Amino acid sequence: MSKNSKFKGTGVAIVTPFTKDGNVDFKSLEKVVNHIIKGGVEYIVALGTTGESVTLSKEEKQSVVEHVIEMVDKRVPIVLGLGGNNTQEILTSLKKNTFNHIDAILSVSPYYNKPNQRGIYQHYKAIAEASPVPVILYNVPGRTASNITADATLKLAADFKNIIGIKEASGNLEQCMKIIKYKPKDFLVISGDDLLTLPILACGGDGVISVVANAFPKDFSEMTRQILAGNVKEAQRLHYKLTDITEQLFADGNPAGIKAVLEMMKICPANVRLPLVKINKATQNALTEMVEEYK
To answer: Helix 26-38 vs helix 217-228: angle between axes, to the nearest 10 degrees?
Structure first.
C-alpha cells in the first residue's frame, strides 16, 4: 500500500467557528470535528480557505491547530493548510513548526503576485526542500489569479518525492486528465471542487478535499468511495442527491453558505469574519428549504 493512500477518498476543509463577538468558538469546533469524523471521512484539513485562515492571527492559528489535534485524537490524519504569497514567510513557518501529529501540508499557489510558471516551480521547490512532511499542491485560479499548468504540476511531481499530490480546483477537466494520464504512479490528483468530484474520480482521480462534507460527510464520503470502487450507479445517485444543495452552498460565498447550513444543523454558528458576511436572505431561504427536505 502506498504511503500516500491515507489521503485517498474524502478529506474535509473544516470551517473555523466564531462566536458572536468574533472569537474562535472552540466548543463548536469540537462539534464540527466529531460530526465529520462520525460521518466516515478519511482525513481533515485545518486552516484551509474554508477555515478562513487568512483572517486568523498567528496565535489563533496555533490554538486552532492544537485543538484540532486534541479533538481528532489520532482518529484520522490531519493536513495543515500552510501556503501564501510570501515564500520566505512559509519557509520560516516550516522551520518553527514541530508538525507533531500533522501528516501533510496543503500549500496554496501564490496569490496576488501572479508569478509565472517558473516562479511557481521555484516557490514549491523551496517548500518541498524545507518541509519535514509531505506537500500537497493547491491550484485554485479563481482565488489566486494564476494557474499551475499541468506541465508545471507534472514537473514538480517528478522532481520532488515529498510533493505527493495536488488539490485541483481549476475547474478544467482537460488539465486534470492530463495530470492523471502522465503523473507518477503514487502522485494524488485530488478534486478541489465538490461538484466536479465525480467526473474527476471517474477519470482516475484519487479523492476530494470537500466543503459540503462539513455538513454531509456520510453521503459525500460514501459517494467518493463508491466511484473509487467503480460502482458508478450508486455514486451517481449520491452525487445527484447532493448537487442542488452543493450549488446553493456557494451561491453567496464560501464559507458563509456551509456555515449557514451547519447553524441549521445546530453544529456551529453561521458567524464569519470581515471582509466576509453572512449569506443573503434568498440564499438562506433556499438552503433552509433544502436542508429541511434532505434525507
So the answer is: 40
Strands 104-108 and 135-139: parallel
Query: pLDDT digit string (tens) for 146-199?
Result: 999 999 999 999 999 999 999 999 999 999 999 999 999 999 999 999 999 999
CA 41 – CA 32 distance, rounded (Å): 12
Mean pLDDT of 205-222: 98
* Nearest alpha-carbon partner for 56 in 18, 87, 11, 105: 18
Please provide residue 72's backbone torsions phi and psi, each rounded to the nearest 5 degrees: -65, -40
Model pLDDT for residues 26-35, shown as the tens digit of each residue: 999 999 999 9
pLDDT in tens, 224-270: 999 999 999 999 999 999 999 999 999 999 999 999 999 999 999 99
Question: Could you state, in order of their start, the residue ranges of all structural domains in the chain?
Answer: 5-230
Considering the domain 5-230 in this protein, what is its CATH number? 3.20.20.70
> What is the grid cell recorded at 110?
501564490
pTM: predicted TM-score of the whole model, two decimal places: 0.97
Residues designated as active site: 138, 167
- 40 CB neighbour count, 10 Å cutoff: 17
- The whole-angstrom separation of Cα 152 and Cα 169 is 15
Phi, psi dihedrals of residue 145, rounded to the nearest 5°: 70, 15
